[in-house]
Amino acid sequence: MELRHLRSFLAVMGERNFTRAARSLHLTQPALSQHIQALEREVGGPLFVRDSRRVVPTAAGEALEQPAREVLRSAARALDLARAAAGGEQGTLRVGLFAGGAAELTAPILETFAARHPAVRIALADLPPHRAEPAVRDGRVDVAFLRLPIDREFLRATTLFEEPRLLAVARRHRFADGGEITIPSYLDLPAPTIPEEMPRHFQNFWLMNDHRNGEPPRFLGERLETVNEALHFVLTAPDGCLSVAASLPRTLDVGGLVYLPIIGAEPCAVAVVSRRDHDGTLIADFHRTARAVSTELIDLVPYASLPSGQGTS
């Protein structure tokens, strides 16, 4: 039994017409008829009843339809696996996640990529803020969902979406009942102490240093390693606060906090990031998959919007 014979059989099953079935497979009608006849010899009986007006499957034809589809699906999957192995698409892709990854799009992106590359194992790594970008740059992960900005000299990014920035404060905070906060009011508040290894461009963006006229931010408490630690510190600090992405309260829920829109703050962006000198097939396809899924499913992320120039840079 040959795969091409099964394809011809299923084409006739779908079209209920030999001429249309042959056309859909780019075959001549005599060639298609030969395929069906060869199958019928193997089955030991007719698969279709033909007259001048229609083609109707026999009981044998109906019994063969589902198994034939399964055989073709299995053959296609076997070919995909072989091609992946031949192209080196086996092994492990290490994916870093920072602060909720791509929010509601994280799971669809990973699931879609896994379906496209069934022979590849995806290993996830949770990255704290000061180690997220270095993990990509140093090769500890192959790709990562990061918050921009990044060092674009060494890293490339596919921006998936943009979303507002919010200010996390405790419910008893003096600004908690205001509904929103201005940038000048935010600049007067102390921030949790961040690790010195935090990339400078990342600090500048999230602490809004461009608005401080050269004055350094005021830090409160001991050094904190993770976003979760910082949020819990805000919960207990009298006047503490933390600038976060709008999706963070949904991916990292800490009770007792209020999230205020920061009026006039530039939105933050989520991107898939990898090293510029790491351009293998799997990494490139992860960028493409993430962009395609985010474009199709952007409505899953409240308050998010697609970037104006959606590409890899």
From TrEMBL:
UniProt-recorded Gene Ontology molecular function terms: DNA binding; DNA-binding transcription factor activity
Protein name (record): Hca operon transcriptional activator
Family: Belongs to the LysR transcriptional regulatory family.
The keyword Transcription is assigned to this record: yes
Gene3D superfamilies reported in the protein's UniProt record: Periplasmic binding protein-like II, Winged helix-like DNA-binding domain superfamily/Winged helix DNA-binding domain
A Gene Ontology cellular-component term: protein-DNA complex
Sequence ranges assigned to domain HTH lysR-type in this UniProt record: 1-58
PROSITE patterns to which the protein is assigned, alphabetical: HTH_LYSR (PS50931)
Pfam families: HTH_1 (PF00126), LysR_substrate (PF03466)
Keywords for this protein: DNA-binding, Transcription, Transcription regulation
Protein's UniProt keywords contain Magnesium: no
Gene name of the encoded protein: hcaR_1
